[in-house]
């Protein structure tokens, strides 16, 4: 596995070199990295559930890019076994040769000092909203202040650990799987997670599967090398369907159908769920 530059960073670097930019210019690109205008970008983002649109701001420009929320791919069996052995070594896991590997990527680990800083930012924004709210004469209960201290931090952290450990146990018990929680953060932050296992990515998993920031955060790899990436709210029922079927042909067909403008809400496991935020999901 050779090192390579992040394709998105490479793309941005080359784009900046070949364009004369002024402060905060905005550019728009479709899922194939073809440049489009703002109207085309917004139409695409609003017309089909299968797309995910992300903005990447810098000091001089904002790049707005369309991605697919979901992606299928294929490694060879040797590559799968290399990844399996790497995860065994770095996480001290037992992963069978025929286990399906589920990887949940977390951008940053919980850390009290970091959360204090974030809470202060939240408080500042709250006061700004409150000032606007008061000046407009809205009722005070429209906005709420939230206390934060070490006890609250630990309570929230323990709740997160309990919930995710329960999910791990459920899927590993019901399916031939190994669930891995992956991060790229300071490895010392793992210490606050009592009895919860992490793997710090050396960069290999990111280069292979999570090349573009904020696009995907869930990876499922089968022993035959087939893999699936999700960057959306993926409910347990859909995940169970993937894990229950060795042949993913039907799911790939549903993905292609979901790209058709005639199916803006998607098909099969890619169908938009009207009760989006209320569906139970683990990963």
Describe it for me?
This is YARHG domain-containing protein. Residues 1-23 form the signal peptide. Keywords: Signal. This protein has 283 residues and is α/β, with parallel strands linked by helices. It contains eight helices and ten strands. The protein has helices spanning 7-17, 38-47, 77-91, 112-135, 150-174, 204-209, 236-244, 249-258, and strands spanning 25-29, 35-36, 51-57, 61-68, 70-74, 100-106, 177-183, 199-200, 218-221, 226-230. It is globular.
Q: Please count the beta strands (DSSP E, at least 2 residues each).
A: 10
Distance N to C terminus:
27 Å
pLDDT averaged over residues: 86
Instruction: Detail the poorly predicted runs.
Output: 1-5
Numbering strands along the chain, what is their spatial order in the largest sheet? 5-10-9-6-7-8
Order of helices and strands: HEEHEEEHEHHEEHEEHH
Return the structural class: alpha/beta
Main beta sheet: strand number and arrangement?
6 strands, mixed
Any idea what the shape is?
A: globular
How large is the radius of gyration?
21 Å
Separate helix tally: 8
Fraction of residues in H or I helices: 25-40%
């Amino acid at each position: 596995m050779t090192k390579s530059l992040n394709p998105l960073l490479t793309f941005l670097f080359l784009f900046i070199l070949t364009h004369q930019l002024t402060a905060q210019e905005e550019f728009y690109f479709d899922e194939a990295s073809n440049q489009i205008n703002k109207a085309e970008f917004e139409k695409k983002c609003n017309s089909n559930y299968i797309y995910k649109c992300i903005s990447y701001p810098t000091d001089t420009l904002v790049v707005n890019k369309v991605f697919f929320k979901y992606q299928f791919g294929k490694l060879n069996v040797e590559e799968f076994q290399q990844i399996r052995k790497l995860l065994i070594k770095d996480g001290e896991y037992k992963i069978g040769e025929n286990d399906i590997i589920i990887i949940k990527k977390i951008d940053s680990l919980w850390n009290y000092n970091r959360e204090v800083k974030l809470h202060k930012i939240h408080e500042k924004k709250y006061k700004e909203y409150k000032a606007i709210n008061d000046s407009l004469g809205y009722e005070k209960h429209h906005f709420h202040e939230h206390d934060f201290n070490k006890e609250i931090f630990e309570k929230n952290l323990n709740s997160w650990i309990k919930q995710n450990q329960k999910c791990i146990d459920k899927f590993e018990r019901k399916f031939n799987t190994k669930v891995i929680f992956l991060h790229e953060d300071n490895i010392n932050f793992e210490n606050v997670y009592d009895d919860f296992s992490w793997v710090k990515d050396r960069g290999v998993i990111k280069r292979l599967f999570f090349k573009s920031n904020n696009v995907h955060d869930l990876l499922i790899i089968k022993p035959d090398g087939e893999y699936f990436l999700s960057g959306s709210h993926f409910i347990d029922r859909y995940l169970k369907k993937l894990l229950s079927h060795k042949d993913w042909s039907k799911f790939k067909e549903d993905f292609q159908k979901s790209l058709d403008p005639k199916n803006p809400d998607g098909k099969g496991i890619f169908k938009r769920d009207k009760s989006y935020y209320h569906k139970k999901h683990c990963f």
